[in-house]
């Protein structure tokens, strides 16, 4: 798998990949929103390609304090072959180079089976934290 930075030209292919991998997609995943994400985080939104086709994708965002990992996904027929781990490692390497000390991610509770993958990659569950959110503009 060849890993490179995601561009907005990848949008349709990446969106299809996310949908096929069961990622919950919302208004915040529409083209203009992803374009904003890529502009702010050009080095940490990545795709993995095999034979010219995108088989894995992830978005990393850095807010100046913590890194956040969004929508890590591998094409379903190629899962369990190490590609997700490779893409995650490359994102972590880039975050580390930027001086990011800690990264967070959210797992939806209907997708608990993915927790084992993250634990194998060194992530720990934070039972003492309760996520809270507030919508400031239209629901996205
Ligand atoms: C989660 C996901 C990205 C992992 O990518 P992948 O390519 O399938 O995973 P890898 O092959 O790199 O797995 C790496 C390790 O995690 C382990 N692993 C993978 N899934 C696991 C699971 N459900 N439970 C326990 N371990 C798991 C593998 O055994 C492997 O360990 P090993 O190297 O010791 O054998 C991929 O399965 C996926 O796209 N899932 C659907 C989308 C999704 O839920 N994304 C996460 C959003 S938070």
Automatic annotation (TrEMBL):
Superkingdom, taxonomy of origin: Bacteria
Acyltransferase found in the keyword field: yes
A Pfam family hit: Acetyltransf_1
Occurrences of domain N-acetyltransferase (ranges): 1-137
InterPro entries assigned: AcTrfase_GNAT_prd, Acyl_CoA_acyltransferase, GNAT_dom, YpeA/RimI_acetyltransf
Keywords (A to Z) from UniProt: Acyltransferase, Transferase
MF terms (GO), sorted A to Z: acyltransferase activity, transferring groups other than amino-acyl groups
Transmembrane segments: none
Protein name, per record: N-acetyltransferase domain-containing protein
Taxonomic source organism: Anoxybacter fermentans
